Amino acid sequence: MTKRDRTIAISATAAAAGFAIALASRRSSRDVTEYRARTARTVTVRRDATELHAIWRERFPEFFRGVSAVERTGNGRERWSIPSGKRVRLIDVAVVDDAPGERVAWHAEKLGAYAAHGLVTFNPIGARGSEVRLSLALDGPVAKTNAAFARLFGLSPAQIAAESLRNFKALAETGEIPKAVHN
Amino acid sequence: MKAVTWQGTHKIDVRNVPDPKILNPRDAIVRVTSTAICGSDLHFYDGKMPGFEKGDVVGHEFMGDVVEVGSSVSNLAVGDRVVVPFPIACGACEPCSRMETSACDNSNPNAALVEAAYGYSAAALFGYSHLFGGYAGGQAEYVRVPFADFGPLKLETDLSDEKVLFLSDIFPTGYQAAEQCGIEDGDVVAVWGCGPVGQFAIKSAFLLGAAKVIAFDTIGYRRELAHSYGGAIAIDPTGINVVEMLRDLTGGRGPDACIDAVGMEAHGMSAISAIDYVKQNAQLEQDRPTVIRQAIQAAGKGATVSLAGVYTGFADTMPMGAAFGKGLTFKMGQTHAHRYLKPLLKLIEDGKIDPSAIITHRGTLDDAPALYATFHDHRERCEKVVMTAA
User: Fold this and answer.
1) What confidence tens digit (pLDDT) does each residue in A118-160 have?
2) According to the 3-state scheme, what is the secondary structure of B69-105?
3) What is the DSSP annotation of B106-122?
4) Which residue in B111, B82, B15 sits closest to A180, CA to CA?
5) Does B133 lie at the interface with A, CB-CB under 8 angstroms?
6) Is residue B271 helix, strand or coil?
7) pLDDT per residue over B96-155, tens digit each?
8) Which residues of A touch B134 (CB under 8 A)?
9) With pLDDT > 70 as the criterion, what percentage of chain A qualifies?
């Protein structure tokens, strides 16, 4: 099977230059039966990895785009509220790895018609804080999974990763997430 | 409340808009007492700054009294008199920890838009487009100040608004432009542009040890001020060879530092400047880099070229061979205004400088449309406009 790249273009409204950023999601060349759309983004946050892990677990709906509430239902399972139009979808999520100061991994069997995977890692880098890397993946034909994701969240997986990490960094460093309104 | 709003190119209107509210724990609301029109406000006035929407409240040079504070603000109290620096900075991220506050990681909620064009986003700014945060500006009766526990300078002085207002932007901006040149005693400094930032760059160059400052501006009254206020040799660049002129005035060495206090809307006289003008209007080139080209050509060996004037896009035909050949250093960027608030206030308190001397026009918020036009058209010897809001 030949490698084929798909590109998710985020149309950036930066009128200054009319640029578009493109992020490539790649089919797995090892797995011919399963397609997986992936995206990953990293930010550096000036906090200790253990503190960052705690903020990730305790304040998730505040910074993660598209998720308005998390209910812990026991045995490492959670139910996420995802507002979609006037409705709120409830999605069952299994936290499959939760290592304080290191990482959190989760898995949603049914995100729309597809399965979704998330992994965040906290990598201490000394005085500069920690590198926080968020990876999101969806199983299924790439075009369809991305479209399903966009329908559900209103954003592409790459945008979800970037904006959620931006919010997370601001919350962890400043205690709040910046908001601007006209006045 | 009453606020000065952007309604389109050369359309500034005073409108009634909702009062600002505390949105985050580190916010404060400031009742504006004085606010100024900045040269960079003319970029959106001319429609050359992207990311503005009709109705946006503009203005980033302002001061006033605190009327409300968020739950996390403990350093300010209602009634405190403050000057607010124009970049919005969190005080907690890595750039802020180095006091590089105009590079704050966290203040711009629309950072993705800037990242698409610039790779990374710098700090948000008050009243300066949705690209830089979409925060309402300070040419209004009230303004919401985010990260108020870090940004505003609390004033415990009897100095008038007019003496301290320019700490919000143009005095630090002129000062940073000079400071980042690493001026040593006896240096000769060339400054392009004798607008407000140029005037403070000239003053600051002398305060930092320059022996001689040579300033350029096409406008006569600005040259007069650069000479009478700043003590500079002020020259009209029209029709002369600036590089040869500077060679003559520096004993053949070239300036030790060249400061561009003009930016992307420079008026050049050469054929290549005419091409820039056409390209800019056709949006093929965003910046008209006449001044940078001259500065690079004129700079002495090992000199610093310091850009205080704003650039937003692309600039063509840069003489990189000359820059490389002379081993020049380039310094540029928005001003890290926060780091200069206290030291520059001290200079004012000690009587080393009186920033209010450059004010030529005064009014109220209601006068904003007329004052924008006067400032833009260089009418009535207009150098700097200050408006009272309360």
Assistant:
1) 999 999 999 999 999 999 988 777 677 777 777 777 788 889 9
2) ECCCCCCCCCCCEEEECCEECCCCCHHHHCCCHHHCC
3) SS-TTHHHHHHHHSS--
4) B111
5) yes
6) helix
7) 999 999 999 999 999 999 998 899 999 999 999 999 999 999 999 999 999 999 999 999
8) 180-182
9) 77
B140 close contact with A: CB closer than 8 A: yes
- The length of chain A is 183
Phi, psi for residue A95 in degrees, rounded to 5: -85, 110
CB-CB contact of B372 with B41 (8 Å): yes
The alpha carbon of residue A179 is apart from the nearest alpha carbon of chain B, in Å, by: 6
Q: Which phi and psi angles does B203 have, rounded to 5°?
A: -60, -45
Instruction: List pLDDT tens digits, range B50-66.
Output: 899 999 999 999 999 99
How much is the CA Rg of chain B, to the nearest whole Å? 20
DSSP three-state, residue B351: coil
Does B270 or B2 have the greater pLDDT score?
B2
Average pLDDT, chain B: 94
Of the candidates B50, B111, B135, which has its C-beta nearest A15's C-beta? B50
Which residue does chain A place closest to B21, by CA atoms? Answer: A183
E strand or H helix at A122: strand A114-124
List the structure tokens of A81: 């509220």
Q: Which A positions 7-36 lie with beta carbon below 8 A of chain B?
A: 10, 12-17, 19-21
Buried-state track B223-253, b at ≥16 Cβ within 10 A, e below 16: bebbeebbbbbbbebeeeebbebbbebbeee
Look up residue A9 and give its amino acid: A
Could B110 and A180 be called an inter-chain contact, meaning their C-beta atoms sit closer than 8 Å? yes
Whether A113 and chain B come into contact, CB under 8 Å, resolves to: no
State the number of CA atoms in the 13 A half-sphere of A103 facing the CB.
Answer: 11
Q: Could you tell me if A42 lies within 8 Å of chain B, comparing CB atoms?
A: no
In A, minimum Cα distance to B70 occurs at: A176
Which chain A positions have a beta carbon within 8 Å of B147's beta carbon?
A: 174
Q: What mean pLDDT is predicted for residues B344-369?
A: 98
Q: pTM (2 decimals)?
A: 0.89
Query: Are β-strands B233-235 and B212-216 bridged in parallel, bridged antiparallel, or unpaired?
Result: parallel
* β partners of residue A39: A136
Mutate one of A62, A128, A182 to test the B interface: name it (highest B CB count within 10 A): A182
**Tokens for B294?**
């001259």
Find chain A residues with C-beta within 8 A of B72's C-beta.
Answer: 175-176
Instruction: State the amino acid at position A178 in one-letter form.
Output: P
Task: Output the pLDDT for position B212.
Answer: 98
Mean pLDDT of B1-28: 97
Whole-number Å distance between alpha carbons of A168 and A53: 11
CA distances from A31 to A40, A122, A140 (A): 19, 28, 12
B373 touches chain A (CB under 8 A): no
